[in-house]
Design a protein that fits this description.
With 328 residues, the protein is α+β, with helices and mostly antiparallel strands. The protein folds into two domains: 146 residues, no CATH class; 90 residues. The strands form two sheets. Strands 1-2-3-4 form a four-stranded antiparallel beta sheet. Helix 1 crosses helix 5. The longest helix has 29 residues. The radius of gyration is 23 Å and the shape is elongated.
């Protein structure tokens, strides 16, 4: 979940706990964003893995330490009760843990006592649509409305946002639960992949046979079931020498391009992905391998590999790509 949404949800949660108290709202919102400060530990994380991103700061122990410190320090900076500061900061920190665990980016809530992860796979780690909604909401609350409209209007906006996010989370959880009943359509090992649209999901399965990788996917729509697929693509993970030749088919272009795409972007190794290939008007073949998890507004992070008709080195580029057969 993106930082803006974390902070906004913590702000709304704090409002629900203590009402419109500026000091408490600021503390709760700050606690909602602080776990992502672990990015500052990057130089130390290689030596001390517990400090990695989504490490100790994304655990109940970590947010409790921050909340205790806030309970002591916050009253020195702004009026308020230490216990209330502790409660709103604890709530904001736990909301952050649950928000990340709600996505397909796992967190270890019981560190340092257990590495057991929390991962519901109900939303994308970064959903650019919701990030835009969160940024616009903050601008509305703290820029447009603050000090410019009657307090009742501000209160109505806060409750409207609470209702909006409650419905959104409910739709995500309903989709995650319902899609689990359709995994048999792809066979064992199928996993749900959320898209930017809370009503639309992908079911995906990967099968490895030696150096061959086969990916199968289908599109699921909440309330309608499987609406497209399943479709499959297969490629080799071993580089194929082709300096003096060009592919003669889409499957060959995809197979040749896959090792090149993996070498050009870590995204290929870190997310589920799919591929498409086309013969261009001049006779060149172009293969595109794109992430099924990293993208929005119909486009996805991708690697494009173009093979010249006359042979020679392929042209490998990373780009945001609008797939033809898969709507991200």
């Amino acid at each position: 979940m993106d930082l803006f949404t974390h902070v906004l949800l913590a702000y709304l949660l704090t409002y629900g706990i203590v009402g419109a108290n500026p000091s408490y709202l600021a503390a709760g919102a700050l606690a909602g964003g602080l776990p992502d400060a672990d990015a500052l530990f990057f130089p130390l994380a290689k030596r001390f893995p517990i400090l990695r991103h989504h490490g100790i700061t994304h655990s109940i122990f970590g947010v409790t330490v921050v909340a205790v410190a806030g309970g002591f320090l916050a009253p020195l900076l702004a009026p308020g009760a230490p216990l209330v500061y502790f409660l709103v900061m604890e709530a904001g920190g736990i909301a952050h843990i649950l928000g990340d665990g709600f996505t397909h980016f796992s967190v270890p809530p019981f560190l340092p006592f257990s590495e057991r992860p929390l991962e519901l796979d109900a939303d994308r780690a970064i959903n650019f649509v919701m990030m835009g909604v969160s940024i616009a909401s903050f601008y509305l609350l703290l820029g447009v409305e603050r000090g410019h409209v009657p307090f009742a209007w501000y209160t109505a906006t806060v409750y409207a946002l609470m209702a909006f996010y409650a419905v959104y989370i409910g739709l995500r959880l309903a989709g995650r639960w319902r899609i689990g009943r359709h995994r048999a359509a792809l066979g064992p090992g199928a996993v749900p992949i959320p898209t930017a649209n809370p009503l639309s999901w992908l079911l995906l399965q990967e099968q490895r046979d030696g150096d061959r990788l086969r990916t199968t996917w289908a599109r699921y729509r909440l309330g309608r079931g499987i609406v497209a697929g399943p479709f499959s693509v297969e490629a080799t993970t071993v580089a194929v020498p082709h300096a003096t030749s060009a592919p003669t088919s889409a499957s060959e272009a995809l197979s040749w391009a896959y090792p090149l795409a993996r070498g050009a972007s870590r995204m290929m190794a870190d997310t589920y992905h799919f591929g498409e290939a086309f013969e261009r008007p001049g006779g060149d073949w172009e293969a595109i391998w794109f992430s099924l998890e990293f993208g929005s507004f119909g486009r996805s992070m991708a690697v494009r590999v173009r093979f010249p008709r006359a042979g020679g080195p392929p042209d490998v580029r990373t780009a945001f790509y609008k797939p033809v057969t898969v709507r991200i």
